């Protein structure tokens, strides 16, 4: 009886238009069919008829609207947890191998921090911390965790993802050249000691470390960082804020998480571009693929080309002065058509699948 009452209440608007002379069950079925048809017309998400609003994607007009405070606190808390856990894990490893370190001895601590296994431990724990934080926060939300993190098939399919990856490589190429140009004229400080030590370790790795390094530096950040900063933070902000504000703030958080000002300057435009791709494709899959390609390619470049036991020999010194700016202009001119074409495709795809206003 209670089921019938609930069904009657659910279908009451449709039953008011039904013929009162028709049998009750027939009127109930007719009202249910009208409601299902209206739901299919109003639900562009492809969710099954009768799907609760809490199970709809973040971009659906009928879906849940996460609080922006939760998104920001989740991003800050997840990053803090990952970095604190990595520092503790690195300290424990060094203490177990060399004894309790003397934190007042800066030279000794710097030497210990240059050990490859210590680096691997800290990076691994940091990435696990970021990824676990994203999963825990997403699981605590009223939305299924994959929906909350936007780990879904991207709008436009994987052909669009390929175009996004190509544009991302071009943007990273130009951004790296711009960064070098700023450093060559003294407008930007060199990378910090920690980043320099990290690059030194990577460049001196033996070839046996290539596969584990790709997993550690390529795949893990692609999963964990995208899940936290683009999956949890960005999609939560997009549900409440204008796209430019949500993308800008999430990109700033992503850049700041690298803990180096010079490196963050380069990561900021990359974060904005990946955030834009997530916004238009409604999925973090493109960001994951781009992150994997960029990190993996840089790791192979540093490991196999730069001087060190695992490399093939020293490369030519980088240019300086006017040649840098000329190269930057040339690279930007070459990359612009590809990026603009990608933006046009993303805008067209987004408008083709744009959900109606609530």
Could you explain how this protein is built, in words?
The chain starts with a helix and ends in a 6-residue tail after the last helix. It has 14 helices and no strands. It is globular, with a radius of gyration of 25 Å. Helix 8 (157-184) runs antiparallel to helix 14. It has 358 residues and is mainly alpha-helical. The chain has a domain at 154-352. It has helices at 2-10, 12-16, 24-42, 68-98, 106-113, 116-140, 145-148, 157-184, 193-203, 210-238, 243-256, 261-281, 285-304, 322-352. Helix content is 71%, strand content 0%.
What structural category do the secondary elements indicate? mainly alpha
Q: On the 0-100 scale, what is the average pLDDT?
A: 76
Query: Based on DSSP secondary structure assignment, what is the total number of beta strands?
Result: 0
SSE topology string? HHHHHHHHHHHHHH
Number of discrete helical segments: 14
Residue share in β-strands? under 5%
The stretches of 5 or more residues where confidence is low (pLDDT under 50) are 1-21, 31-55, 309-317
Global geometry: globular
Largest sheet: none
Helix content: over 70%
Termini separation:
34 Å
Radius of gyration: 25 Å
């Amino acid at each position: 009886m209670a089921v019938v009452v609930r069904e009657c209440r659910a279908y009451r608007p449709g039953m008011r238009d039904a013929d009162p002379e028709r049998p009750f069950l027939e009127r109930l079925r007719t009202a249910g069919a009208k409601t299902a048809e209206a739901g299919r017309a109003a639900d562009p998400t492809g969710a099954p008829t009768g799907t609760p609003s809490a199970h709809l994607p973040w971009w659906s007009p009928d879906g849940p609207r996460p609080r922006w405070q939760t998104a920001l606190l989740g991003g800050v808390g997840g990053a803090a947890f990952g970095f604190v856990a990595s520092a503790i894990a690195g300290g424990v490893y060094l203490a177990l191998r060399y004894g309790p370190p003397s934190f007042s001895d800066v030279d000794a601590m710097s030497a210990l921090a240059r050990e490859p296994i210590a680096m691997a431990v800290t990076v691994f724990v940091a990435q696990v911390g970021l990824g676990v934080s994203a999963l825990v926060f997403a699981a605590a939300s009223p939305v299924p965790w994959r929906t909350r993190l936007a780990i879904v098939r991207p709008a436009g399919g994987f052909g669009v993802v390929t175009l996004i990856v190509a544009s991302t490589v071009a943007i990273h190429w130009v951004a790296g050249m711009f960064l070098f140009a700023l450093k060559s004229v003294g407008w930007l400080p060199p990378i910090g000691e920690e980043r320099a030590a990290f690059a030194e370790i990577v460049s001196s790795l033996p070839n046996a470390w290539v596969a584990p390094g790709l997993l550690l530096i390529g795949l893990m950040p692609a999963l964990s960082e995208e899940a936290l900063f683009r999956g949890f933070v960005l999609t939560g902000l997009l549900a409440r804020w204008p796209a430019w504000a949500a993308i800008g703030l999430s990109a700033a958080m992503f850049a700041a998480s690298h803990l180096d000002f010079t490196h963050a300057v380069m990561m900021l435009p990359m974060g904005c571009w990946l955030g834009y791709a997530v916004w238009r494709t409604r999925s973090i899959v493109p960001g994951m693929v781009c992150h994997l390609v960029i990190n993996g390619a840089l790791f192979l470049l540093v490991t196999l080309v730069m001087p060190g036991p695992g490399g093939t020999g020293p490369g030519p010194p980088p240019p300086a002065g006017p040649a840098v700016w000329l190269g930057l202009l040339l690279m930007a001119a070459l990359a612009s058509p590809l990026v603009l074409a990608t933006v046009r495709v993303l805008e067209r795809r987004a408008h083709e699948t744009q959900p109606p206003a609530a």
